[in-house]
Amino acid sequence: MEPKKIRDGYLVKKGSMFNSWKPMWVVLLEDAIEFYKKKSDNSPKGMIPLKGSTLTSPCQDFGKRMFVFKLATTKQQDHFFQAAYLEERDAWVRDIKKAIKCIEGGQKFARKSTRRSIRLPETIDLSALYLSMKDADKGVKELKLEKDKKVFNHCFTGNCVIDWLLSKQSVRNRQEGLMIASSLLNEGFLQPAGDLSKNAVDGTAETSFLDNPDAFYYFADSGFFCEENSSDDDVILKEEFRGIIIKQGCLLKQGHRRKNWKVRKFILREDPAYLHYYDPAGGEDPLGAIHLRGCVVTAVESTPDVKKSGDENLFEIITATEVHYFLQAASPQERTEWIKAIQVVSRTGK
Hints:
The chain is α+β, with helices and mostly antiparallel strands. Helix content is 23%, strand content 32%. It is built from 7 helices and 19 strands. The protein has helices at residues 86-104, 114-117, 126-133, 158-167, 174-186, 195-204, 332-348; strands at residues 5-14, 21-29, 32-36, 46-49, 54-56, 68-72, 78-82, 143-147, 150-157, 190-193, 216-219, 225-228, 244-254, 261-270, 274-278, 288-291, 296-300, 314-318, 324-328. It has a 7-stranded antiparallel beta sheet, with helices on one face. A 7-stranded antiparallel beta sheet has the order 16-15-14-13-19-18-17, with helices on one face. Strands 8, 9, 10, 11 and 12 form a 5-stranded antiparallel beta sheet that branches. Helix 4 (158-167) packs across helix 5. It is globular, with a radius of gyration of 21 Å. Residues 113-117 and 229-237 have low confidence and may be disordered. GO terms for molecular function: phosphatase activator activity; phosphatidylinositol-3,4-bisphosphate binding; protein homodimerization activity; protein kinase C binding. InterPro entries: DEP_dom (IPR000591), PH-like_dom_sf (IPR011993), PH_domain (IPR001849), Pleckstrin (IPR037370), WH-like_DNA-bd_sf (IPR036388), WH_DNA-bd_sf (IPR036390).
């Protein structure tokens, strides 16, 4: 029986022989990590066994390079990976640590079985409840919150979740609400943001979910992002960088001249509406920017050139000046999320 896939996505990996960092398609299995040069490749470029490995996060070995974690194997080999942002790194680290722990205990990797562990009634449909919570008009409101000189975008507090469950008569009291909220968290529908809620998930609190105004959470497929506040009032950003970050992550982008495809890290901002793209292997300055005000974005089935990346999950942005950009997401869901986010920003941002 083949090992189950736990997580996959683009990460930047440091080469084992040369001091070079390159984006790779990384797949976490129950017993190993495989990495591929491209998502469409059939065989991995390399494989890292998890048995006996140790994980270090954050890894500060590379100065300005942020969101790095290190995996050291039993053969004294160190592997370094870099995520696009903090929450992405933390999600990889949590799953890798759990996979290693399951191997040590002779267990199969599984998300927490909330129905058994906290006796969740069979009548509760967590997927349907999650969709109701995300409803733009009647759901839990996503906010911009500040704590400890950090700005948390598109998140909400633990007590707001319990208040919402009570207001919709989904639960009878706060204790029952805490049980349901913990189930949503354990099943991955909700994610912790900030030290207080993350420590609770790691087991330093009585419950994994906190009914607390200082405990922050976000929807798993939202545009959540945490950024540091700057105390330097003299820092003046270019106009296009002043917008709030709505969404970020890695996508494949087609070049305009050679028509080849490369992995790029994208950051979507609103007001003003810009989509900046960067070399995910390093560099603080963007390689380019797409002004989104008045643009059109649609899903497409193929690109009008011969150098294809594989025709899955493509979408096109046509700017107000009629410049065409072709991008490729890793999954249909990710493509839909990017299209919706860009459509909103294109209408509301200047």
